[in-house]
Amino acid sequence: MGAKHYFMVALAALGWSGMGAAQAPKPGALETYKDWTIGCDNRNRCETVSLLPEGGEWPDSPLMVGIVRDAGPDAATDVWVSRDAKGGGEISFHVDGRRIASAMSRDGDATIRGPQAAALAIAMARGNALELRLGNRSLGKPSLAGSGAALRYMDARQGRAGTSTALVATGPLGPLAVRAAPPPPIIRRAPLPTATAPAALWREELTALGKFTRCTEEMKGAEPPQLYRLSRTETLILVPCGSGAYNFTSVPVIATGEAGRRAFRLASFDLKPGWSEEEARPMLVNVGWTADKLRLDSFAKGRGLGDCGGSETYVWDGTRFRLTEATSMGECRGAWHWIRTWSAQVAE
Q1: Is 250 exposed, middle or buried (0-12, 13-18, 19+ CB in 10 A)?
Q2: Per-residue pLDDT tens over the stretch 8-39
Q3: What's the angle, vertex CA 204, arms to CA 201 and CA 207, rounded to 5?
Q4: What's the Cα-to-Cα distance from 257 to each of 83, 132, 198, 227, 317, rounded to whole Å?
Q5: Rounded (5°) CA angle 337-56-300
Q6: Is residue 323 within 8 Å of 342, Cβ to Cβ?
Q7: Closest-CA residue to 26 (of 341, 345, 346, 348)
Q8: Is Signal one of the keywords UniProt gives this record (predicted)?
Q9: What is the pTM of this model?
């Protein structure tokens, strides 16, 4: 499946919910302005990330620059840089030849916070050329094309336009005119199971499971289905259903009943995973399970470099899997950091 097709599927999935569209999470969409892409989550936390210029080749020493800010009148701006490197040292940011800010890096990553970060973001929005240096050595020159438009979008989304807190769309109004961040959705996680590990699937159950999920052919030669206890009576089964060079798909099934005579149903989600092509059959990619949190993780790469794709994290509430976090990167242009588009708070 190509990267563009994957994102069309992911966007189409945003309106799906087995419990009704009104209750479904709505992850934020991404916007791209020339060489910068930006997204905000449901709490209006916004992040914009630099991209390689259209048609640009992957550099020998890739790096990314991002600007992130929470919603609310008192929220500060952070500017970060990430690159594939070991060790540390001082990384400095130069806009149009003028040194604006610096921070110590660790294994290639560094973050600038507070007033220095705001000043750097404003300079980037107004400037023509950005260069990052480690001492006297140039690390790279990420494009600034579109950075001003992305930050203007951030100001508008967070209700800062026309206020003194805006980075680009400044105005005479004070911080009190900025709206507060929306409260997070609260998801109550189901109690952790105390029952023993689920019994292995019988041969007849494996056959029935393949037919039920329509994954019989994909199960041949694959690792056996993974079984995880959800409650005293319910077991999560992750059924292998295809693989590629860097994406491995699974169909999540809930089993009930005694070993050898278990009944199967497809797992329910408040937002179907983005890889799913069929309305009735959820599909997870590169799935992970965290037993002590009843957490299910799925992420799909748009291509092997990992510079585009999407991820979802869910928690089991006793009835269905509820979305707790989603990230996305719709442009396959050198940004391996995916932007958060949804978040929720989990209560035990």
Answers
A1: buried
A2: 333 333 333 333 334 689 999 999 999 999 99
A3: 95
A4: 50, 60, 11, 14, 20
A5: 35
A6: yes
A7: 341
A8: yes
A9: 0.90
